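Hi everyone,

Forwarding the result from last night's run.
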Amino acid sequence: MESAFVRSSKPRSVRWAVALGLVTMLSVWPAAPAGAQDGAPPPEPGFTVGDQIVYSSTWNFDGDLSVNVGPWGQVTVTNTNCAVPYRPGTAQAGAIIFTATLQTEQTPGGLQLAQGDLLPFIGSSATGHVSVLTPAGAAPTSHVDATLVGLDDFALNNDFSVCLSPADMTGVTADVVMDANFVLSQSYQPFQTVVTPTAPNSPALVAIAGTKFPTADGYDQWVFFFLGTTYLGTDTAVSSPQLDLTGSPGPGQVDVTYVDYTDGAPLCCPDLPPVTITYTWDGAQLVASGTPPGH
């Protein structure tokens, strides 16, 4: 079987040049695009804590993130993705984004509490609050609680992702931006990101799911893997019709869930149970727990 991890032939120097272009774009982001509310800071790229579908005008989320790159400076709640939460233009015309600047204080027992008000950046007038509790330690797990109230009817059934951004953007988050821009340079639009720590003092494993663009049907998706900013390859030798990044079961691991079909079933209608494959960075290479359906 052909290796699932297919490296790009593009020179690394070219990829860095492309990536730096996106970093520059983010650094000169206008403070308030059309439709943005005063006081909401522009969304920064960050780590995906998790996601939760909107079922009513009130939205609640709680989740954990084990990445030792704090202290945290901002939280973004978005229906786009944490790698590229907002790009001005028609590509994200339907974006709904809330941001919060975090204020940090120490609590008894060495816990670090960061809190902030979620303000509407674009797409909605709802507001909310977020708190991030991080214990002391070499590899702390931050617990995030977020609430939005007064959501509009059009927000219903949107899947909101919660993104944590370090106060210092020169760290791993900047790597994720570079990785996402490389995915864009391959004509794939990022729609999900998972970042998971690896060995101590080693770069994080970054997985970015992307859809081919321009596209007529959206049935051309790949997962691009990076170790920091080093491109490792894609999840499979050929793209998949539909996939989903479903989390990280442990350090250096990413779960990818694939749709499955019987022979002859149309792309629109997968008729077999989905299959989840765990990709693990073992310190030298990515190892898949199995073979994705159709590959």
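Residues 1-37 have pLDDT under 50 and may be disordered.

Cheers,
N.
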